[in-house]
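Weekly sync notes, structure subgroup
Attendees: PM, AL, DS (notes)

Item 1: joint prediction request from the bench team. They want all two components modeled as one assembly rather than separately. Inputs as received:
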Amino acid sequence: MHEDSNRHAYSFLTPPEVQFLDAAVERLIPADELGPGARDACVSYYIDRQLMSNWGMHGRNYRMGPWAEGTPQQGFQSRLTPQEIYRYGIADTDAHCKRQYGKAFRLLAADQQDEVLHALEKDAIELPTVPAKLFFSLLWRNTEEGFFADPVYGGNRDKAGWRLLGFPGVAASNYNELMYTQTTAYRVEPVSILDIREQRVALDNQGYPKHVPLADAKDGHGSH
Amino acid sequence: MAATKLKAVDAVVVGAGLAGTILCKSLAETGLKVVGFERGRMLDAQHDFAMPYAHDELKYDRHSDILQNLSRETITFRNKMSESALPMRELGSFKPGECVGGAAVHWGVHARRFLPWDFEVRSRTLGRYGAAQLAADCTSQDWGIGYDELEPYYDQFEHLYGVGGKAGNLNGEIQAGGNPFEGARSREFPNPPSKATPIGQLFADAAHQLGHTPFASPTAAMTQPYTNPYKLMLGECVSGGFCGSHGCAQGAKASPLNTVVPALGRHDNFELRTLANVVKINLDSSGKRAIGVTYIDARGREFEQPADLVVLSAYTFNNVRLLMLSGIGKPYDPVSGTGVVGRNYSYQSHGKIQLFFEDKIFNPFMGGGGRATSIDDFNGDNFDHAGLGFIGGSYLAAQSSGAAPIKNKPVPPGTPSWGGAWKKAAAYWYNRSFSLNLHGACQSYRDCYLDLDPTYRDANGLPLLRMTFDWHDNERKMLAHAMEKTAEIARALKPAKTGAHGLSAKYSIVPYQSTHNIGGAVMGADPATSVVNKYLQSWDVNNVFVVGGSAFPQNSANPPTATIGALACWTADAIKEQYLKKPGLLV
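Output from the run, pasted for the record:
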């Protein structure tokens, strides 16, 4: 399948960087009884593709100086691009882990990994190049995107993120008939842009997919 | 590099968004030679927003190419005058468009009129409560035009854009099912209201129980197939979500692309020049008359387009910036409180209460198309403000916006921000929650304004616009009051959990709030406190009109789009019926 053949075709990230990210994103969204985590949803691959896109170099951002840190209300003011934030953020964090625990991040126990991620989030680690919080916030933003964006971007493999929520993906054209009366969960096989591009689903005459109910459709997935 | 001087035309319109396209069409109908300028590209809705590609949350929420490209031009921002402004390096709080159709391509189709009170904020406040009700530094003022005078143009815009709704006040008579607080309408909406969705019905029942009057928010997503006065056909919205921030795959969302632009093609005397960024309005040696505009094309070539009439109809920021770069009108000085260009920049205030239910399922991905049930009981001056210490208000709504999964996964307060517990909570509550949204007004203040940044420049070397803005006590108190009223409704709905998100301590440019930036080139009856007169004509250079949200002297709680549309129709009429017959200052 297309997704499989591309699964390891990384363009920007090096193998150790991929291992770092696989470990980190799996702590952010772990596999559990509800389904796959971010690692198996190929979030690292999603991040790699984003980093090679225009966004990876902040191609649509204002990037002229002078550069100043500013207030939180003034927003992103780093001169580092996402490519740089990942490259230096991973190296800096791994160096911290080796000092603190004697091992690279990917080799730490899960609770140690969580400890490091919490510290990054709270800016409690002083990284030499990238502000810890900046690295974490970008990592979390991209992990969420990679888990819940259309699989056409390389993540959300097998629509794991959409299955988790019960999100049907590309809309069908009959919601007007359903939305006023449907009081149980609308459970269908999610449809992605990738599915339509690869002609895996039937379309109606308006070009909207025909949703197929899930075989085991039942309400209240996910116990609380 | 010397600019190439082109053959003169009669009129130019700068910015082909919601206002500009209406002005282009109206001017083209007179037979004049008209050129419309747009810095972005032409869009072909059928191909640019084809299925299934239009249903791409990542693209349209995070990497959209129909929004302003900040690598070429942005604004700078600071909360207060004592800070150094820094450039907005990535989009956040608002999303200006950069394409034919502008921000009205991706708008959320909420097509409310402003309240009659909104046009006379100062005089009605003084009349009802006295001067003590207004903050000393509040510069809110009357518009120089009243609701009744603008009403026929609201009506015109609503028929152009196929707005669906139910009148609440028809020629002074209150109508059941509509908004009883709205200004009088001369006739019904062109399309029926959207039906209350399940969350809309829950909200309506609770609001009704508490003595409020719920109604279906007017929407410019078609509630039935519609043909507008230009004989352009729009299809019925299918509630497929992917609406706000997105172009509509079906053409059911009214925008310049499907309500006006195709009709422009019928006029041989009209030309739309895209990828043409106007950088200056040129004046004659007296400084009292515009002689055309200078623009830069996609290749960086500079052209001078002479014209007898210049209509500025860009986004709020660019209208104000172009006036400043061209030396039209006296720039505002917040220290002395004199000058007008850049004065009274304002925004809108927002809050929400998230409701989480154990026993209800909402299928939140169904929706979009402006489907919302609202109350106006706490909007404008619809309630007694005596003793409250603020003016203005909010409308409260339950909106079925179509919850796409990257950014719509509410979790109850206290949930970890990531990890296994977050994942379980996100999965559990996605289908069991909705929000009550508060949309609040924002008054204008002496220290909230726009000027040219002293440091940062755009890709052409021209100074960026600088925004100085923060919340004031009036808005803090107003939103806190609205949050209390919303919490009463929330309690009546008996959710298992709630999460309240009121006004931020300081205004931040980071999280998305609304693309409802207004003011800076405000209209009014007095040249000492306005840039343009009630016809949106420059007091200083009479053959320049400045149309858009930039003309609002302060902001209503209601979304600005319908009022921008009405003002565009009003100005188009004034130019056609008065100015062209007798060029000069309109009175």
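Discussion: Confidence is low (pLDDT under 50) at residues 219-224 of chain A.
Action: AL to compare against the crosslinking data before next sync.
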